[in-house]
User: Fold Chaperonin cofactor prefoldin from Neobacillus ginsengisoli.
Amino acid sequence: MKSTIEKLQKLHTSAQKLETVLQEFWSLIDEIEEDNEFSDLLNKAKNYQSKKQKSDENLEELSIRLNEFENSMGQIPEDGTAAVDFEDAISELIEWIKNNK
Assistant:
């Protein structure tokens, strides 16, 4: 059981780091969304897509890249809550193992 507890403790530490990283990640997303230059890029891509302008390879590629960016971002948990819940579950599991071995 000692090996299992050690592995769970490492996992717990990793979950704590994940919480911090997710908080930083979403803070940076907020910053980039408030960035004027990034907003200009979004507007150019949206205008290009909505107005069916003549073909423009640069704007087409920008639109594709921004869609990939937004789709990928949507797959990241929105906050550290999931990490905190997992961290708590790990702590409780470690405690149970210690008390019931």
Notes: The helical segments are 2-34, 36-51, 57-73, 81-100.
